[in-house]
Amino acid sequence: xxxADKVAKELAKSGKPQLVDxxxxxxxxxxxxxxxxxxxxxxxxxxxxxTGATVKYTFIIDDMDPMDDLPTYLSKDKxxxxxxxxxxxxxxxxxxxxxxxxxAKEFIHVFNKLGAKPEILWNSELYSSGKLDKxxxxxxxxxxxxxxxxxxxxxxxxxxxxxxxxxxxxxxxKIGTTVATxxxxxxxxxxxxxxxxxxxxxxxxxxKISPFIGKGKxxxxxxxxxxxxxxxxxxxxxxxxxxxxxxxRDTANAIAKEIFGYEPPYDIPYEHFLLxxxxxxxxxxxxxxxxxxxxxxxxxxxxxxxxxxxxxxHIDFNPELEHTIPKLFDDFDIARKTKDPDLKxxxxxSSVERKTEDYFVLRFGDLVNLVQMPNMDLESESESxxxxxxxxxxxxxxxxxxxxxxxxxxxxxxxxxxxxxxxTLPDKVRMLTDKQKALLLKVIDLMQKGSDPEAFQNExxxxxxxxxxxxxxxxxxxxxxxxxxxxxxxxxWLILSLDKKFVKERFKEAGK
Length: 512
Ligand SMILES: [Zn+2]
Description:
Its main location: cytoplasm. Among the domains are: 280-416, Orthogonal Bundle (Arc Repressor Mutant, subunit A), CATH 1.10.10; 427-510, Arc Repressor Mutant, subunit A. Helices cover 46% and strands 10% of the residues. The protein is mainly alpha-helical. Zinc ion (ZN) binds next to loops. Zinc ion binds at residues 169, 171-172, 174, 192, 202-203, 205.
């Protein structure tokens, strides 16, 4: 049984309403790895829904977090002064919205496209609406106990007066630089320290503030369980870094139980999603954003990539390796047509808009070759391979695949699978042996006959054999004469896709 179905079945037994939750800090363009968490939570949500359980999926945008790193694609002059300021209070690079809204919306757009449509909650609104007030008070009243929990679980020592709350400085507006020094049940006294962190400078202001309705935030390790308790979260996982023993998940679980009296949500730790490759990792200094990868693969195929592995299985995706993308499409098509119930379930959960699996489409690798051939009628080629007329759905799929085959060729395909037909006689024809030249002249004769590529391919091969050429030597002669390189797509298809007169003249010239 698919892992999410197992989890859902187990959780649904309680008969209680379920709340799946995930969150992300919009500190800039969101990295592709963050999509994995969104999809994993979406799988549990959908599996639970199918059991008939009452279930909701929320996604919190952590817009109260400070800017603690300046993305390389932003102007230093414009943004350096905002280091330490809550992301919700920083202007967007495009004007209008806040910085947090700008990058969060970009990320939301991508995961919506992948079929994940959680209810979006803005952390700043959770605070300003007073939704977290009860937990803020509990945390402040129990600051000492929280400190003990930290020490017990993570082994880290905190200063004696540690209070798990960070006010927004009333003078400079920063939140990353403040320290709460005392709590009297009504107000928090705080200081904005010049050197609290090395990425932002505080202004030195000392003040007192009510910690409620949006004047600051709980420290992250306390905020996480506070949100569980305030919203009633029953399922939330995290990347494996947070899931290590004594890590933030363990602390959050203990704080949930001991401070907020709340049973921690069901946990799903998950492995990283790594995107490797030279072009990908050098992209603008941040690696690849979720938006970028959503532009190189259709939504279902990208979702399939994340749905197929189990959460603790590592994904290392390198689109620049020769077979990565064509194989991903092949695997997707195999899952689409399979009778294996587990694989079928993976395909169903990858399918974004409950598409029918009943359509014909050429293999991606074949399409990559075919789109490079001049004058190729892809619809009639598909039709002859299908052996029947194309349906409307077949045509739509073909159209979409062609778009992604072209993107692949432009962005990632290794040189050996790219080709163009040389307009003039390639220099490389000097490499041709007399036998190869004889073959090219023979192919001109063979072209007079029918135009079935399968039969034609075989005739060319036989002609080579009769002359005393190996199969490799035979087809190499054709590639050199047409493409100026030693390899290429299936020769018969290539020849038949070209203008007959052009090929005949080229072979005559090369065969001299
Ligand atoms: Zn300040």
